[in-house]
Task: inverse folding
């Protein structure tokens, strides 16, 4: 069937090519000799034949032509995929919301497949009444909807010693930004009755890593949530189904997934993920701990090494994202010449507290090489620093919290590369 | 129901749990946790010893347990296999170009070792070790880091007498106090002299994954 239907088209295409080669002299004679774009002149299958009906995909998936838009990992980075990370394809995304299936994953003991009927949240320690909640109980609390970014503290951590990975997916892809539906943690803790001596909270997951982090009670009562939906649907298993902790603006490791327990105490626990890991070693051998807040940061997502300029010189769109763990983004500057001169970019889309912001810079590219950089300024006045400024204080062995300015070199052909420039 | 007395009893027990006094909280949601439930999940240990269970274990038992359960990833002497974490050695390397961060060289508190080994190890068989076994493995890890002798036995009673050498070298987050350049007014024009020069390229390293054929990088 398809062979038959394509046969005449093939011959017509051959004829058309011939006529174009002949200067198009015959093109005006009739429809069969029309000159122009075959995508217009030849009716495609999707116009002449019926498509699939409803229910062909009960849970809808992206177009088959978008199959390359997937999370990817860096196999050499970790010992085993069960305790590893993959990266959000930032170069393929726009707006501020990350689709659920593209949110980067970081697990320490694989993805727990938790039966929601067996899920329990226990709150105990320095509370008046230790309580147990089912998922149904959780959904009887008043809910809120909030858009927050979640960034791994190790995002860009492979770039401390210099440009290493050729793709924004790998240099900056340990971040996602979704709308959470859940219950303010304050409301849940008030149900138990906090004792005045309670200054810290230990959050614990139900996965095979039993992930734990110590969180000061001020943060727990400020804007933390226990979330059960992301972008309107149930949390994905890899994001902590059926419920996770949301710790806005703070490093992603604290957003405990598959949450099972909250203990209130009078001191921090100093567990593995806040001592051996997620502490920042400095050149003098001392280390910073409790570096919870994510500093203001931005990156150009296109063009970038995975998203080169393919249209040649002329009208060109630069786009990227910016975020801050301390508030909103006030301004993003873009440089085309490696930081010599800066122009304010155009922010577009909603500006939410501790959320990704989207920026654009449209210009006429003259075809000469570009040294693209972006610089975020947040609502506290914090200006995203250069990588060298950070290295001058932190050296190159602190792993976490690299929010330095990224440079993409774009050559005359539009190909982009991760570089550092003087 | 009367045909299944056992089932009736189970249901009555379950109902009893459900009907336990509702929370005293303002919304009346949730139910009180029983002491046994709290004990079943409350496994965390703090540097001041809070949470440590009864038990004891020595270097000798620890060596055998370590060989059976840990060495496949962490190496016979804590030196690590592949990219699994190094557990021993590295003392004096924190200021080196390539620091080796181990229990002996970096971790501030021994309680973290006990807590983590119990909650998450062995990898893939979490919370399968007895308290005595966790004490023994912890003792052996101290031995591998030259912090105790081979006849050392660790217990809840002597736990706080062991201090890890790097404890004093941690300080609370001071980024905003020490990196004040982030509040400088940003330069907009003629910020650097000359033309940009590339000082390093990712392409030279060539470590970017090429994908699996399903979605390779352009």
Result:
């Amino acid at each position: 069937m398809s062979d038959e239907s394509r046969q005449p088209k093939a011959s017509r295409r051959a004829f058309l090519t011939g006529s174009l080669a002949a200067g198009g002299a015959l093109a005006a004679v009739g429809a069969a000799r029309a000159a122009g774009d075959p995508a217009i002149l030849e009716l495609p299958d999707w116009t002449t034949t019926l498509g699939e009906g409803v229910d062909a995909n009960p849970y809808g998936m992206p177009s088959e032509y978008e199959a390359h838009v997937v999370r990817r990992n860096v196999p050499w980075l970790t010992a085993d995929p069960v305790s590893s990370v993959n990266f959000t394809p930032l170069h393929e995304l726009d707006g501020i919301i990350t689709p659920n299936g593209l949110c980067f994953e970081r697990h320490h003991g694989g993805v727990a497949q938790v039966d929601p009927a067996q899920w329990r949240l226990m709150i105990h320690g320095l509370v008046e009444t230790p309580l147990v909640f089912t998922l149904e109980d959780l959904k009887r609390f008043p809910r809120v909807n909030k858009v927050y970014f979640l960034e791994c503290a190790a995002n860009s951590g492979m770039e401390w010693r210099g440009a290493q990975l050729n793709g924004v997916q790998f240099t900056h892809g340990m971040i996602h930004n979704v709308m959470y539906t859940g219950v303010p943690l304050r409301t849940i803790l008030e149900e138990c009755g906090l004792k005045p001596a309670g200054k810290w909270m230990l959050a614990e997951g139900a996965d095979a890593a039993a992930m734990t982090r110590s969180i000061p009670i001020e943060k727990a009562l400020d804007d933390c949530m226990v979330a059960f939906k992301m972008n309107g649907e149930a949390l994905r298993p890899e994001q902590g189904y059926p419920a996770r902790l949301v710790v806005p603006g703070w490093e992603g490791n604290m957003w405990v997934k598959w949450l099972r327990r909250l203990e209130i105490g009078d001191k921090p626990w100093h567990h593995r993920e806040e001592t051996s890991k997620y502490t920042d070693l400095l050149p003098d051998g001392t280390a910073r701990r409790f570096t919870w807040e994510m500093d203001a940061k931005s990156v150009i997502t296109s063009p970038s090494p995975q998203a080169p300029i393919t249209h040649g010189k002329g009208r060109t769109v630069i786009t990227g994202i910016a975020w801050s763990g301390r508030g909103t983004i006030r301004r993003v500057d873009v440089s085309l010449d490696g930081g010599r001169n800066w122009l304010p970019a155009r922010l577009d889309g909603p500006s939410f507290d501790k959320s990704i912001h989207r920026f654009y810079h449209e210009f006429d590219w003259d075809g000469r090489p570009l040294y693209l950089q972006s610089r975020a300024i947040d609502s506290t006045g914090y200006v995203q620093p250069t990588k060298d400024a950070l290295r001058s204080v932190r050296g190159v062995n602190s792993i976490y919290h690299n929010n330095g300015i990224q440079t993409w070199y774009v050559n005359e052909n539009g190909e982009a590369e991760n570089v550092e420039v003087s | 129901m009367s045909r299944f007395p056992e089932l009736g009893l189970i249901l009555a027990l379950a109902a009893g749990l459900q009907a336990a006094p509702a929370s005293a909280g303002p919304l009346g949601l949730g139910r009180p946790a029983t002491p046994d439930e709290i004990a079943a999940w409350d496994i965390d240990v703090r540097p001041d010893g809070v949470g440590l269970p009864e038990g004891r274990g020595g270097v000798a038992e620890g060596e055998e347990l370590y060989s059976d359960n840990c060495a496949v990833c962490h190496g016979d002497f804590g030196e690590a296999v592949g990219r699994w974490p190094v557990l021993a050695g590295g003392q004096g390397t924190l200021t080196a170009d390539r620091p080796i961060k181990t229990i002996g060289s970096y971790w501030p508190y021994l309680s973290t070792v006990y807590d983590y080994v119990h909650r998450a190890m062995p990898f893939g068989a979490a919370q399968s070790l007895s308290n005595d076994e966790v004490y023994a493995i912890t003792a052996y890890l101290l031995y591998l880091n030259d912090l105790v002798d081979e006849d050392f036995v660790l217990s809840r009673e002597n736990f706080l007498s062991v201090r890890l050498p790097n404890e004093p070298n941690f300080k609370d987050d001071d980024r905003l106090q020490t990196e004040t350049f982030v509040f400088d007014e940003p330069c907009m024009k003629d910020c650097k002299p000359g033309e940009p020069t590339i000082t390093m390229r990712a392409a030279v390293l060539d470590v970017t994954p090429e994908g699996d054929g399903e979605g390779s990088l352009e």
Notes: The first helix of chain A runs from residue 2 to 21.
